[in-house]
Amino acid sequence: MVDRESAADIDAAAARWVVRADRDGDDPGFQAELEAWLAADRRRSGAYARAQAGWKHLDRSSVLAPTVSGGSRLRRRSIIAGLGAMAAGVTAAVVVPRLLVRRYGTTLGEIRRVPMADGSVAAINTDSEVEVSLRPRLRAVRLARGEAWFEVAKDPVRPFVVESGPVRVRAVGTAFSVRRREGGSDVLVTEGVVEVWTRDGGAPPRRVSAGERVFAENDAGVLTPPKADADLGRQLAWRDGQIVLDGQTLAEAAAEFNRYNDRKIEVADARLADKRFVGWFRINDPEGFAQAAASTFHGQITQREDAIILRTASGS
Fold first, then answer.
1. Residue 61 — very low, low, confident or very high, per pLDDT cuts 50/70/90?
2. Quick one: 279 exposed, middle or buried, by C-beta within 10 A (0-12, 13-18, 19+)?
């Protein structure tokens, strides 16, 4: 039988994790290790938050300044020990901002604009979930599902890293979107430059510049080079509640509307599915799109409570 870890041992370990976070927080593998440690014992979250609060009051530049190697190690040990003691003595009220994590979600059809504490802004698309953790050396964002666009405030000492499954996107001050798909993630850059890689994928990060897009596979990383895409504005029109069609097929357009609406569009006729369409619509107006498509291609629509059926008119 394994002895239960004592509170003092947890406080000491939490102090070591806080020091590591300040030094290695931008390491993509560090967050996974930390989360695994926190999950193993519910007491660890409180200890970590208390140690983190103590760390903020220290002069980190003097703590980590290069000195004689032996003295530096002794100094580091004393800091960790002091943090452990401080963690044990801080009141439970400090636990409230644990890890400074904020979670944001959107429902079907909802688009949400979220200002962050560091000055960055996120636009979160329909049916999406984002988790933001602002740390001393890293701004970590986890896209659990869906799509989000980020306008990142410049902070050279705290890179901004988005985790989308195994895919990672790193920036300092730029603007880009990440859409999580089955098998990988789409990355579109509207300003600046980002680096894209896959955890444990074995391939080096690929740079993606403004006006370019890339798809990163979960298992293999970026297999094809980033390519210029003049259509980024159309693809990000959702930020303004719009769907812009510029030669997409009716089947593709219907799938896009169905991302935002409970009432689904069904293109029931294969002769219509491949027809290409141009138009501008609100994301919550599937009826308007269906009527415009039917008028353009001599089709007809049948409306049900849960669906809008688009097919070729009889005799066409």
1. very low
2. middle
